[in-house]
Amino acid sequence: TYQPVNQPRPKAPPIPAKNKKPIHTAFFSNIPFNYPIESFKQFVSQYGEIVNMYSLIDKKGIAFVTYYDIRNAEKAVEQANDKLLNGRNIRTNYANKSFFPHRDPRATCASIIIRCDKMPTNIQLQDVFNSMKEYGEIQQALPGEQPGQFIIRYYDIRDAQKAYHTTNQRLTIK
Q1: What is the pLDDT of residues 42-91, one digit of tens each?
Q2: 25: which strand partners?
Q3: What is the DSSP code string of 22-52?
Q4: Which range among 9-23, 54-68, 92-106 has the greatest average pLDDT?
Q5: How far apart, in whole angstroms, are the C-alpha atoms of residue 20 and residue 2?
Q6: Which of 41 and 122 is assigned the larger pLDDT?
Q7: DSSP string across 56-78
């Protein structure tokens, strides 16, 4: 539609509320379409080490950046929001997980599910926590949905991968 030059531009739609649950992938929007990818990668790298970056900057002005450590994704979402890049205020949020249904979750997941082979079991959550902490800093340890099942969430994706591969998908708790 035609809009006279002296008329104010319509406001951009409001930014959706922040996703409350942090994940390792941060969503960046309102990036200038002509902003060089290498410069953007340098910009987002200041918040932490990156696993993967999916960029649609040249087409939509958006990018998805996955950080190894969830604390770096949190830092990026909090600190990069409203930063100025080439005269535009960057918007940040946590990515919607459903945007990447085709990706192997083992590449970006920091959680391990432990299942006890023999039931009933005397193994307690603290036993599992103590056995798994040697692989890295644990963000959270929870009982699973079923008896003898435990969920261990690491801060860093690499720690979960190390735990998974080192235990060779089997863990003995004494």
Answers
A1: 999 999 999 999 999 999 999 999 999 999 999 999 999 999 999 999 99
A2: 66
A3: --SEEEEES--TT--HHHHHHHHHTTS-EEE
A4: 54-68
A5: 39
A6: 41
A7: EHHHHSEEEEEESBHHHHHHHHH
The DSSP symbol for 95 reads P
Contacts of residue 6, Cβ cutoff 8 Å, sequence gap at least 6: none
Q: Which two tokens stand for residue 82?
A: 């409203």
- Provide the pLDDT for residue 165: 87
Q: Is 12 exposed, middle or buried (0-12, 13-18, 19+ CB in 10 A)?
A: exposed
The single-letter code of the amino acid at 134 is E
- Rounded Cα–Cα distance for residues 37 and 168 (Å): 38
Sign of the Cα torsion 33, 61, 82, 12 reads positive
Closest CA to 100 of 25, 20, 15: 25
How many CA atoms are closer than 13 Å to the CA of 131, on its beta-carbon side?
20
Residues sharing a CB contact under 8 Å with residue 83, sequence separation 6 or more, in sequence order: 43, 89, 90
Structure tokens at 4: 């006279």
Q: Which of 44-58, 72-86, 100-114, 145-159 has the lowest mean pLDDT?
A: 100-114
